[in-house]
Write a structure and sequence with these properties.
Blueprint lengths: L3 H10 L4 E2 H11 L8 H14 L2 E4 L14 E4 L1 H23 L8
C-alpha cells in the first residue's frame, strides 16, 4: 500500500518529467483541489521515492527560456511504473469490495 502522496506523485510523473511545483500543480488539478501537497510533504515524499528507486532526478532540461536552473526535474522509473500499476489494481479491488458492501455507488 502506497501513501496517497506517493501515488499522486507517480501519477503526475506518468506522462512527463516535472519539477516540484509542477507536481504540486498537477496533483491539485487532477484532484479538483481536494489534495494540495505542501512543499514539505512533496519533498519528503520525493526523497523517500528517490531512495526506493521509484523516481530519479533527470538531467534533461527544457529549453533555457522555459527553465529555471534552480529546478530539479523528476522522472518515474520502471519500478515506479510497476509499483503504481500494482497500487491501481489494489485500489480497484478495494472499490469492488466497497461496492459489494454498499459503501460505493454501482457503476452505471
Amino acid at each position: 500500500m502506497l501513501p496517497p502522496a506517493t501515488f499522486h506523485i507517480l501519477l503526475a510523473l506518468a506522462e512527463e518529467d516535472r519539477h516540484g511545483y509542477a507536481i504540486i500543480q498537477d496533483v491539485a488539478m487532477r484532484t479538483g483541489g481536494e489534495l494540495k501537497l505542501s512543499a514539505g510533504t512533496l519533498y519528503r515524499s520525493i526523497q523517500r521515492m528517490l531512495e526506493q528507486g521509484l523516481i530519479v532526478e533527470t538531467r534533461d532540461r527544457p529549453a533555457p527560456e522555459d527553465d529555471d536552473e534552480r529546478r530539479r526535474y523528476y522522472r518515474i522509473t520502471p519500478l515506479g511504473t510497476t509499483t503504481a500499476k500494482a497500487e491501481a489494481r489494489r485500489l480497484s479491488q478495494l472499490m469492488k469490495m466497497a461496492r459489494a458492501a454498499g459503501f460505493a455507488p454501482r457503476r452505471a
